[in-house]
Specification:
Elements (H helix, E strand, L loop, with lengths): L2 E10 L10 E9 L3 E5 L6 H8 L7 E6 L2 E2 L7 E5 L10 H11 L3 H4 L4 H14 L15 H13 L5 E5 L7 H18 L2 E5 L3 H7 L2 E5 L6 E6 L14 H20 L1
Parallel strand pairs: 3-8, 3-9, 6-7, 7-8
Antiparallel strand pairs: 1-2, 1-4, 4-5, 9-10
Helix pairs in contact: 2-5, 7-8
This protein binds adenosine-5'-diphosphate (ADP).
Adenosine-5'-diphosphate binds next to helix 1.
Length: 262
């Protein structure tokens, strides 16, 4: 399978000055439909990698290619969800979900005429993540886990080909987090969407990903890549097996090395 997302020898320096690069010589290739997880010490450039892959930042050196095209501006085929769900409190959950469609073409021009189709799409997504009938609630009437589910729906509403998740479960309790792992697992299986997940939770990375990339401390680059071949669909029970623990342990070793080298 050819690469769907490719970063080739990418260097990025914030501020345009002569400060130390955030990432340097960063190369990675992600296949179409693959679930990739990026792990690494805090500040190593994981979020920067996300911004480069989606065109929110341009690299100082190197190339970024997504879906066969060099990324030179923010790309539309991507959906994003972050640790903080950032829902607008004065809009209902449903209207928060519709927000990207008011911004991204071609949906923007079609929204008025096709409103009922888009609302049906939003409601189907809400049902998919266990929020059936919650569209009329305001975000502040939802729990943190429910808001994060809604935020996932919002990142998928324009049917992106690439889903970028930047520590989306970091602020949730362990139980809710594991529930949401299963939601993401099922969305990925059902839609065949390419996913890039940034996380510092190694269990999360191993449970969800087809491949885990470990980054070095700043300036970030890939220092290890681990294929995760547990059969799918994966059940949470696998996280308690010795095989699972051994992969997590191996990755922890890479992170420790990266931190010690810093
Ligand atoms: P991570 O996501 O791995 O924690 P980031 O990609 O957010 O790391 O940051 C990588 C490095 O770049 C850090 O040292 C951070 O302080 C710096 N950095 C991130 N964003 C900016 C910015 N907008 N301006 C200047 N420096 C930044």
């Amino acid at each position: 399978m050819s690469a769907f997302v490719e970063l080739h020898e990418v260097t990025h320096v914030y501020g345009g000055g002569e400060t130390a690069p955030a990432v340097d010589g960063l190369s990675l290739k992600i296949r179409e439909g693959e679930f990739a997880a990026i792990v690494g010490p805090s500040g190593c450039g994981k979020s920067t990698m996300m911004k480069l892959a989606t065109g929110l930042q341009r690299p100082r050196r190197g190339t970024v290619i997504v879906a066969g095209q060099e990324v030179t501006q923010p790309i539309k085929i991507t959906g994003m969800a972050f640790q903080n769900p950032v829902m607008l409190p004065w809009r209902t959950t449903l209207r928060n979900l519709l927000l990207p469609l008011e911004i991204v073409e071609p949906h923007r021009s079609r929204l008025r005429a096709n409103k009922s189709d888009y609302v049906a799409r939003a409601e189907a997504l809400l049902a998919k993540v266990g929020l059936e009938g919650m569209g009329q609630k305001f975000p502040w009437q939802l729990s943190g886990g429910m808001q994060q589910r809604a935020s996932l729906c919002r990142s998928l509403i324009h049917e992106p080909k690439l889903l970028m998740l930047d520590e989306p479960f970091g602020a949730l309790d362990a139980f809710t987090r594991e529930e949401l792992w299963c939601v993401i697992r099922d969305l990925h299986a059902e839609r065949g969407i390419t996913v890039i997940l940034v996380t510092h939770d190694l269990r999360e990375a191993v449970f969800l990903a087809d491949r885990v990339f470990c980054m070095s401390a700043r300036p970030g680059r890939i220092i290890a890549e681990r294929e995760i071949d547990f059969p799918r669909p994966r059940d949470l029970d696998i996280t308690y097996t010795p095989e699972f623990a051994s992969v997590v342990h191996e990755l922890r070793g890479h992170i420790r090395t990266a931190r010690e080298a810093a």
